Structures are given as C-alpha cells and as structure tokens.
Amino acid sequence: MINPSPMKRFLTLCVSLVSFALFGQTLPYTSITNIQYVSPSNLAACNDTSAYLGDTVMTYGIVVTPGDVSEVASGSVQGGHRPFFFLVDTVAQGAAGSFRGMECMGVYTNAQGQLLPLPNVEYLLPGDLVKFTGRVGVYNNGTQLEAIDGNSLQVIGSRPVPTPAQITVGDLNDPLRVNILTTGEQWENAFVEFNNVTVTEVIPFSGNRISFNVVDGNGNKINVSDRFLAQKLPSWQTVNPYSPQSTGSFVPPTDQIKAPTIKP
C-alpha cells in the first residue's frame, strides 16, 4: 500500500472542512442592514442589487407583521397559501431606519420537491425575535430571503413591537410613480407611515382584489397593494388557515378622498 503524500492529506482535510461548513450550515451572522445596503454610487447608476444576491445567509430580525394576516393565494404551495412576513434589523432595538427592512418568504421545498409553509410561520407575532437562514433572492424587483429548509425560521425571544418610520411619498416615488432609488431604496421592505395623502385611483383586479394609488401634496404617487388581510374585500375567502376571519372586510376608499394615515 502506498501512503498518501503530506500534501494530499492536507488537501483532503481542507475539502472535509469545507464540506462540513456547507452541509452543517455553520453560517456567520450577516445583518439585515448589510444584506440590504446599496452604495450611493450604485443607486445613482440605477443598480439596486444586493451584494449578497444568490448567497445563503443567517440573520436575526424582529417580526413586524403577524403571521396570521398574510393573504397570498398560491397554486404551488400545499394548502393554497404562500405565507410571508417582514423583519426589521435588531439594531437600535428594532427602530426603523435606512436599509433595515427585510421580506421573508415563509415557504420551503422538502425532500420530495413539494413546497410547504414553514412550521409555525402563521404563529409569528410583532416583536418576536427570530433567527432566519435563507437564500438572498428577488421578488417583484425587491430583495427577499427565501427559506432553505424546514428549520430556516426559529423564534428565540421577544423585543418591543416595531413602530413605523415617518416618511413622505416623495422619498420613494415621483409623480409618475417611478421609483427614486437614491432616496427610496433605503426604505425597501420597511415599515413606514405616510400622512396627509389623497386617494386618486381605486384599482379593482383579478375579480375580487383591489389596490389604490395615493399622492402627497406635491403629486408624488405610490400604489398600496393588498397582500394582507387588512385590504381584502368581503368577497375574498381567506387562504391563510390561521386567519382571524373567514372573509375580508375592507371597504375601499373613494377617489379624491384624503387618507390621513397610510401604513403599507
């Protein structure tokens, strides 16, 4: 028998260590702020892509949206509901701020290739401190963490319930509803509040869904979407099995009515 050379033994050891790190998911902590951050020069060049796109990361965050009110129907996820939730970075006890918000998709693929909701995702409450391991992806041009397995989400404590940042529509969009990356990208996936905005269009779609546009005093426009129970019409049959209601109850606003407070 020929003994392997010292160099060959060294290479074998290196490969074993790398394999253990990958399959054991011994990932270092990466903050939500670091995942979301995009430099001013990239934003000025219309590049808002996360530097971590495609990477698998482990992060900590504070839950903003309760798990029982997400309402996204899906024909590919078992049960017909594709849960999602939002986190805020743990910095400053969860205060809203630049690049601190993150959307998480609460679905994973099992060994049989089936899409399933993460265990207990519907029980999440605002203020829950969670550990999340996932792949950095993109949904609707926004950065999103995607679960890698059924253990991606762990509740490890609690913190004060997050409160929204006070911003203006003009921080995000212009009058044509075009994103202003240089000032708006920092608020992607964030919990924010607009005051003194006016509804300009009410937009029915897909039979029993509705969104609406609002403008600020300078005419800057943004669309308010309907992914939560709060904006589901009475004709909507809820798809979240843990929903507190069997149908929606949203009464659409009327065009040209001032809406004092909007919380996306």
Structural class: alpha+beta
Could you give the count of β-strands? 13
Model regions low in confidence, pLDDT < 50 over at least 5 residues? 1-23, 260-264
Q: Please state the second-level CATH architecture of the largest domain.
A: Beta Barrel
Mean pLDDT: 90
Q: Kindly estimate the percentage of residues that lie in beta strands according to DSSP.
A: 25-35%
CATH class of the largest domain: Mainly Beta
Query: End-to-end span in angstroms?
Result: 69 Å
Q: In this structure, how is the largest beta sheet organized?
A: 5 strands, mixed, barrel
Tell me the number of structural domains: 2
Under CATH, the homologous superfamily of the largest domain reads: Nucleic acid-binding proteins
Strand order of the largest sheet: 1-2-3-7-6
CATH topology of the largest domain: OB fold (Dihydrolipoamide Acetyltransferase, E2P)
Gyration radius from CA atoms, angstroms: 21 Å
SSE arrangement, N to C: HHHEEEEEEEEEHHEEEE
Q: What is the helix content? A: 10-25%
Can you give a write-up of this model?
The strands form three sheets. The chain has a five-stranded mixed β-barrel with strand order 1-2-3-7-6. The longest helix is centred in the N-terminal third of the chain and has 18 residues, at 6-23. It folds into two domains: 27-158, Nucleic acid-binding proteins (OB fold (Dihydrolipoamide Acetyltransferase, E2P), Beta Barrel), CATH 2.40.50.140; 165-262, no CATH class. It contains five helices and 13 strands. The radius of gyration is 21 Å and the shape is globular. 30% of the residues are buried. The protein is of the alpha+beta class. Helix content is 14%, strand content 30%.
